[in-house]
Amino acid sequence: MKNTVVIKSNKSGMTVILAPEVPFEQLLLDIASKFEDSAKFWGSVQMVLTLTGRPLTPQQEFEIVNVIMEHSQIEILCLVDLDSNRTKRCEKALNEKLMELSSATGQFYKGCLRKGESLESEASIVVIGDVEQGARVTAKGNVIVLGELKGTVMAGAAGNEEAVVVALTMAPYQLKIADAATPVNEKGRKMGRGPVTASLTDGKILMDPLKKSFFNVLKSI
């Protein structure tokens, strides 16, 4: 049988070469099988991923990343785009989308919050950066952290039990939603692998892997 998926390691992470003529649904099955078979070899690691060999839509790229993460212990930190023009277009589209969401639904903060710093919002807030231990974020709506969450965060500060907290890396010192709170996490233990969402169910805060696009989450704020 022809090898439709080839995995190569590189200095920054991993390159996956995909056969150009295979139907995409079959390719997803082949990727799942390939990464299941090599899961022990790679182990639990964080990787930068490059996809090559055939043109892919953003949705197809997203599906491939999900399949890899679901069938291995690899956490894909980011996807390297070899098309510089498309990268520029995506960056422009992202900035425009952030501006649109900021004016329509909530507040954006670009930068890392250091120890002793605090940030408050009357609505929802998206932090484009890390929240370090000793920093605090408080919002009456949702809190989205596009980075590492190691500080203290409170969502639904006015008693909104529908509020959620989402982070690319979820390791808060303490997390609160409405009147519920997690135990203090002094050792900075990660609460899940990859992006995680925290929500309130029956008075308890539950952590679940985030399986959908961050843009879909942003639309909900």
Description:
- The structure is a single chain.
- The protein has 221 residues and is of the alpha/beta class.
- 26% of the residues lie in helices and 36% in strands.
- The protein contains 5 helices and 15 strands.
- The protein has helices at 24-37, 39-42, 58-70, 84-104, 214-219; strands spanning 5-9, 13-18, 45-52, 74-80, 106-110, 118-121, 124-128, 136-139, 143-149, 152-155, 165-170, 174-177, 180-181, 196-201, 204-209.
- Strands 5-7-9-11-14-15 form a 6-stranded mixed sheet, covered by helices on one side. A 5-stranded mixed sheet has the order 6-8-10-12-13, with no helix packed on it. It has a 4-stranded mixed sheet with strand order 1-2-3-4, with helices on one face.
- Helix 1 packs parallel to helix 3 (58-70).
- The longest helix is centred in the middle third of the chain and has 21 residues, at 84-104.
- The model has no long low-confidence stretch (mean pLDDT 83).
Radius of gyration: 19 Å
Number of strands: 15
Which ranges are low-confidence, i.e. pLDDT below 50, for 5 or more consecutive residues? none
Structural class: alpha/beta
The fraction of residues in strands falls at 35-45%
> How would you spell out the order of helices and strands?
EEHHEHEHEEEEEEEEEEEH
Shape: elongated
Indicate the mean pLDDT: 83
What's the arrangement of strands in the largest beta sheet? 5-7-9-11-14-15
End-to-end CA span? 47 Å
Helical fraction equals 25-40%
**Tally of contiguous helical segments:** 5
Major sheet details: 6 strands, mixed
